[in-house]
Amino acid sequence: MTGTKVTRRHHLRQPVPRITLHTRGKHTGHMICVFGDAHLDLVVQLSGLPAPETDTPAATSLSVGGQGANVAAWITELGGRSRLIAARATDPAAELVAAELARRKVELAGPVVPGGTGVVVCLSDGGQQRSMLTDRGVGMRISADQVTADWLDGCEWLHLSGYSLAEDAVSGAAVAAARFARARSAGVSIDLSSTAVIESRGVARFRELLDEIGPEVVFGNQAEAELAGPVPAALLIVKLGAGGVLVAGTRHPAKPTVAVDATGAGDAFAAGYLVGGIELGLTAAARAVAKIGAMP
Hints:
The chain is of the alpha/beta class. It is 30% helix and 25% strand. The two termini are 14 Å apart.
């Protein structure tokens, strides 16, 4: 789990958690719903800085990705059941994405939206950090009036991608999904996902949306958690990359592994935590960084 370099030095306050450990998703027979997106990931392992006007050797890998899709796929890989709620495109790539998720036993829900599947180019430096060039395609084109209650039927837990708070329409859909989840007595968690999303949305507005959603569990790396500020009444889990995770003020070290590509390690941790708690989350993250790509 790669942690973004932190330039701020102020103290990250730890909230008093409403719960000490997540337990609902540990019953692997229950459904965990994930609200997010699914697209194509192109992971590029750089051999060095790109050379202008000529070739730079690199290793590439193409796979299905998207924070929502990654978490849903890891949930089923780790023995849970998952349903991905996402906007789906109408281009040929959308068929590839749907087929791959079905192969991984991820149920799909959400509207079909005219347009193209998103593509994210992940630039990896060999397992320690990654930067992303993002085209989310139709991923943000889902609104509150499209969300239907049956998408949350049978869900014991709803996990939200922070990318779903990036724009008005999709954030309305995320809030609507959380309300339907609450009506079914399901728990709710969210990953802060990106400092760029928090900054572009505006910290104040992002926090307002967090308050509307009211998650029991919040995931984020240290930079994201510092930027978003304290999360009242939620269990804050701070991902520290090679340093493991900080849970309610207690650090849990990462599992030994040989890092190859950090893409998706945080998604694997979140899935593992929702299915089986901290130890399974750390084990999943160690598996994720030892291979190329975000999917299991």
